[in-house]
Write a structure and sequence with these properties.
Radius of gyration: 26 Å
Distance between the termini: 84 Å
Order of helices and strands: HHHEEEEEEE
Structural class: alpha+beta
Number of strands: 7
Largest sheet: 4 strands, antiparallel
Number of helices: 3
């Protein structure tokens, strides 16, 4: 593009429009949060569901080896998950990579506390299913 032609075009458009439209557009700073984002796996996409008896968490972890998952229950209200995403084909052959490969370490806050022996964990079709029973106690009220 020819800079002089662009300047001339901007001058012509400014003659018909009495505001500093182009100056305000071109002098704006790009949104910092958009350009500051990096491609990382801080916390994979996950959903949390609950009904009267059970809490279920679904975590997206495509391409993970089941034997490469490590779980820890932290203070009964947070679960820690560690794994590694390994590319199925050598990185040397990649033309474009849009998926994350490498160590994945994250924690998910549980909506209600639980015990480690109550957790049920399954991995199928790229989804990690974590469920546990809700610990609801009835309160007897004497009136």
């Amino acid at each position: 593009m020819d800079i002089e032609k662009i300047r001339k075009w901007m001058e012509i458009t400014n003659e018909y429009r009495q505001s500093d439209f182009w100056s305000s557009v071109l002098n704006q700073q790009p949104p910092k949060e958009f350009f500051a984002r990096t491609f990382d796996m801080d916390v994979p996409k996950h959903d949390i569901y609950q009904n009267d008896t059970t809490i279920c968490i679904l975590v997206e972890l495509p391409g993970i080896q089941v034997n490469n998952l490590l779980f820890n229950l932290i203070s009964k209200s947070r679960i820690s998950i560690k794994t590694t995403a390994v590319p199925p084909i050598s990185n040397e052959l990649a033309i474009k990579q849009g998926r994350y490969y490498g160590d994945i370490n994250f924690e998910i806050d549980l909506p209600e506390p639980t015990e480690a022996h109550l957790l049920t964990v399954q991995y199928q079709d790229g989804l990690l299913y974590i469920s546990y029973p809700r610990q609801i106690e009835s309160i007897k009220v004497n009136i």
